[in-house]
Amino acid sequence: MPPRKRRSYTAEYKVEAAHRVIDSGRTITEVARELGIDAGMLSVWVKDERRRITAAEVHGDKPLEAAERAELQRLRR
What domain of life does the UniProt record list for this protein's source (predicted)? Predict the structure, then answer.
């Protein structure tokens, strides 16, 4: 049996998925089921996004949008 291929997700997709939970008030399980992804993985994305938003607010910065974060990551490579 061939090994399973791991799916990879863009930074933009992760942020958008996390905001489906953060902005809507729906549960991680509901959104994960809707997107067809693992709830544990989505939970990590939500936690990371909440930390990023909090850190930006603490420093008085406006949080970067998903497209801006993806561009920064691309430029850093």
Answer: Bacteria
Nearest one of 75, 21, 42 to 64, comparing CA atoms = 75
- Whether residue 27 is contained in a domain is answered as yes
- Total number of domains constituting the chain: 1
- Cα–Cα distances (Å) from 30 to 25, 36, 75, in that order, read 10, 10, 34
**On the CB side of 60, how many CA atoms lie within 13 Å of its CA?**
0
Give domain status of residue 3, yes or no. no
Q: Model confidence over 12-69: pLDDT tens digits?
A: 899 999 999 999 989 999 999 999 999 999 999 999 999 988 887 777 776 677 777 7
HSE-CB for 36 with a 13 A CA cutoff = 2
